[in-house]
Write a structure and sequence with these properties.
By secondary structure, the chain is mostly beta strands. The protein has a single domain (40-467), classed as 6 Propeller (Neuraminidase). Helix content is 6%, strand content 34%. The protein has helices spanning 2-16, 422-433, and strands at residues 39-48, 59-65, 70-75, 79-84, 90-95, 114-119, 133-140, 158-166, 181-188, 198-200, 214-218, 240-244, 274-277, 282-287, 294-298, 304-310, 321-322, 325-329, 332-334, 349-352, 364-370, 381-386, 391-396, 409-415, 418-420, 444-447, 453-456, 462-467. Strands 1, 21, 22, 23, 24, 25, 26, 27 and 28 form a nine-stranded mixed beta sheet that branches. The chain has a four-stranded antiparallel beta sheet with strand order 2-3-4-5, with no helix packed on it.
């Protein structure tokens, strides 16, 4: 009761103070609570990926492949590693940047590289159409092949390609297949936020129409503010979430299939690959094991970060909206008429980039729905993250908020008797490694077998597993 009264009084004081009130650069009246509602968890160091040239692995995703009972983790510079279920064995499965594959990974800067990957749910099932197949999403400097999708911008920086690999022996220690097959190619107009997450719906029951369909995030092409106005254009691939059948052939290129129930099939001028639109930089997807609901974390421009529930055909608002607020510019959102367009799917939760807990540059990440029992305090929580700061947050997935950041609470790592963020843990590890402490964590969160929750980062090469 005292906590609620204190927050109410704080709201009154903030609203009364022009210097602390809601502003176009910080539309949230109250900061994320630093201590209220904190969940504390333990962790263990599960496995480590090797440095390349003295630089820690740039991990993006961890996937459980149950058919061969292995985890897989990628490094943005090209390697894909297999990791045993006990974390004791880490081995290079394939380096997609190896010249023999003819891919060529463009990994300059912080945002480009081997973005993501996904294993077909039939990867380990002999005789099934998806046997041995997995998919990689990567930036490449090779712009010789004609692109499937362009921005209309005369200038271009590189391409992003979706590739299908087929292993002859899925359980082999290393990839033993032929060079990959290209499914589609995006010609990128700018050098930043180009791709996104890649994944199959793990909750799709056998026989359901979603089995074997691949979801792919396509960011808005970069620069800032979506200058080419592509995210709201249904004729453009950029700023979208695609849903395709990688084993089908009824697309325009005949290299993949278009699901018949995709929302814009038959809509004049719209790309039939589109499942949802109006995203800026869709970093992570998460499906709720209980009901199959899809969530996405989307990096904002300069003011608002967001996590949204995504329905078929949803418009998530960008670049007309940044979160719940009208997008005006890189330095301003509109405070009036919040969430006023009934045709837009607004975030379930969002936060301000200049919140005191965060760094000057913020970015939505995460993202998992935890329905396990091994860590009781996380049960039925939607877990997400702010990537640079290493802050991990939670809200109830059974009582979803309706926007704003009031419902957000922290998850802290209990380490050596004190509460820490992941960045603080990484910095301590860096000191033990004899390296300069990382200034950001670039945190990702993934689920493994038996509801294991793994934390990935780009600062120290260590994969950590949460414990109770």
């Amino acid at each position: 009761m005292q906590t609620h009264i204190a927050r109410f009084m704080t709201a009154i004081l903030l609203a009364a103070s022009p210097a602390l009130a809601q502003t176009p650069t910080d539309p949230f009246l109250l900061p994320i609570p630093a201590a209220e509602g904190v969940i504390r968890v333990g962790f263990v160091e599960f496995a480590s990926l090797p440095d390349i040239g003295g630089v820690a692995a740039r991990m993006m995703n961890l996937i459980d492949e149950p058919g061969t009972r292995r985890l897989f983790v990628n490094d943005m510079r090209g390697p894909l590693y297999s990791v045993s279920y006990d974390g004791k064995s880490v081995a290079l499965y394939v380096d997609i940047n190896d010249p023999k594959w003819g891919v060529g990974v463009q990994s300059m800067g912080r945002e480009r590289g081997f973005q993501n990957f996904a294993f077909h749910p039939q990867f380990g099932q002999a005789g099934a159409p998806g046997f041995g197949k997995f998919y990689t999403y990567t930036d490449t400097p090779n712009m010789t092949p004609a692109p499937d999708f362009t921005s209309g911008n005369a200038m271009a920086t590189h391409d992003t390609v979706l590739l299908e690999w087929t292993a002859r022996t899925p359980g082999a220690a290393t990839y033993d297949g032929v060079p990959p097959r290209e499914l589609f190619r995006l010609r990128q107009p700018f050098g930043n936020h180009n791709a996104g997450y890649l994944g199959f719906n793990p909750t799709a029951a056998p026989g359901s129409p979603d089995v074997g369909l691949l979801y792919a995030g396509v960011a808005d092409g970069g620069s800032g503010g979506d200058p080419l106005n592509m995210a709201q254009n249904l004729g453009s691939a950029f700023g979208k979430i695609f849903r395709i059948d990688p084993l089908g052939t009824n697309s325009r290129s005949k290299k993949y299939g278009i699901p018949a129930d995709n929302p814009f099939v038959g809509t004049p001028g719209a790309l039939p690959e589109i499942y949802a639109y109006g995203v800026r930089n869709p970093q992570r997807f998460a499906w709720d094991p209980r009901n199959g609901a899809l969530f996405v974390s989307d990096i904002g421009q300069n003011i608002v970060e967001e996590v949204s529930r995504v329905a078929r055909g949803a418009n998530l608002g960008w670049n007309q909206w940044e979160g719940s607020f009208r997008f005006i510019s890189r330095t301003e959102v509109g405070l009036e008429n919040r969430r006023s367009d009934p045709k837009v799917t607004y975030p379930i939760v969002e936060w301000g980039q200049i919140d005191p807990l965060l760094q000057p540059q913020s970015a939505a990440g995460g993202l998992v729905v935890y329905r396990g029992s091994q860590i009781p305090q996380l049960a039925n929580r939607l877990i997400f993250a702010d990537m640079p700061s290493g802050e991990i947050f939670h809200v109830s997935v059974d009582n979803l908020p309706d926007g704003g950041q009031d419902a957000i609470r922290r998850i802290l790592l209990r380490h050596e008797g004190t509460d820490k963020t992941l960045l603080q843990v990484i910095q301590e590890k860096n000191k033990a490694q004899g390296k300069m402490p990382a200034t950001r964590s670039d945190l990702r969160i993934s689920l493994g077998p038996d509801n294991q929750v793994f934390l990935l980062n780009k600062g120290d090469g260590t994969i950590r597993m949460l414990t109770r």
